[in-house]
C-alpha cells in the first residue's frame, strides 16, 4: 500500500480535531466503563481496517484492563469465552451500527433489545456516540491512508 495521501483532514480544518476530541471527552465523562468503550472502538476499527485506530484501540484496551486473550480475540468475540454478556452486547451493537448498509434492518430489535437489557439510555447514548466517533475517525483515516505509529 502506498504512503499517506494527505494529513488527517481533521488536522487541516481549524477547530475540527478539537471538536472531535471534545466528543471523545464527553463520552469518557459519562461514566460508561472505559473497557466497554475500548472494546467498541477496537471492534469498529477492525471492521473498517483503520490501522491507527486499531493500534490506538489495543493501547486503550490494555489501559482499561483487558487481558491479552481479550485483546487478541476481539475480532472473534462470538467464538471465545473471554467476554461477559454485557461486553458481547456492546460488541454486537458496535458491529450492527458500524455495518449499517449490510442489512435491510440495520440494527435488528434482537441486537438493540440485548443492549438495552445491559445499558440504560444514557449508557446507550454514550456507546452509540463512541461507535459514531470511532467510525468518523476511521472514515477520515482510511481514505487518506493514515498509518499506525505515524502520529
TrEMBL record:
Name the record gives this protein: Carboxymuconolactone decarboxylase family protein
Pfam families: CMD
Carboxymuconolactone decarboxylase-like domain location: 18-95
Database matches in Gene3D superfamilies: AhpD-like
Superkingdom, taxonomy of origin: Bacteria
Organism: Kibdelosporangium philippinense
Alphabetical list of PANTHER family matching this protein: 4-CARBOXYMUCONOLACTONE DECARBOXYLASE FAMILY PROTEIN (AFU_ORTHOLOGUE AFUA_6G11590) (PTHR34846), BLL7811 PROTEIN (PTHR34846:SF7)
NCBIfam families for the chain: ahpD_dom (TIGR00778)
Endpoints of the signal sequence: none
